[in-house]
Amino acid sequence: MPRVTHPIGHGAPDHSNNPAHDLGDPGVDPFEVAASAARAIAERTGVERHDTALVLGSGWQVTADLLGTTTAEVAVTDLPGFAPAAALGHVGTVRSVRVTDGSGADRDVLVFLSRTHLYEGRGVRPVVHAVRTAAAAGCSSVVLTNGCGGIDVERGPGTPVLISDHINLTATSPLEGATFIDLTDLYSSRLRDLARQVQPDLTEGVYVQFPGPHYETPAEVRMAGRAGGDLVGMSTALEAIAARQVGLEVLGISLVTNLAAGVSPTPLDPQEVIDAGKAAGPRIGALLASVVRRVLDEPRP
Ligand code: 8IG
Asked: Where in the sequence is the domain holding 208, given as residue range(s)?
């Protein structure tokens, strides 16, 4: 793990107490806070614009080390609007990683090693702040990853699954006011095709976002399955909606870390869930690093 760097010549202003950046204040414009965070990232990393962003959920953190050369790593608490990492297995930093693309050109990837979950109780704005910041930092796409429960016994722990669509059971939205946005092909079929060029046997599934933090009951898992869901989790759908609003192309990839409650022959143990993510880490990290390089090589038409 590289140390958290503060490039010479840039101090480390404390953003944690600035009322202008308080996403909990309805009078504060979350897009202005995202623009401030993007400026802070440009200052701290020395990278004016980033090409694509990754949000790394449980099990996926290894990707950051396999992707390329870390230019800078910044604590999220040094950036406007970000809450400290709360979830087990999450590191509260953002990295700028330099990747050489197929034509030999340098590209810059913004990697969020943690996310804010809805169950932290801060509301939906902090949940989607990374995605809005990525767009403000110049990214044209975002890869959203997560660890999740699987409903299909054929796709057990350790299986990566491309998200084809979602069912949002959080009863909320990151969009505020009468903001009507089409979500057809929210999870880009173009990017899913590129991922399958890297690993042809990748399957797809519908991700169902529950609010958490408790896991589902077996009856809720049966409901999710009958509704067309394949994967159950506590993230990603709200972030994908926010990404569409700011025009980012979205690739969603889940890692099944456990079979969902009732499908699993044993009760869910949070530590076992994390251990399954760790075990799959090197394999799925290498997969995702290759997928990101593929995405960088095939710019959006
Ligand atoms: I890792 O089985 C992980 N996250 N809701 N259900 C929900 N979230 C999860 C699960 C799961 N596993």
From this structure: 4-297
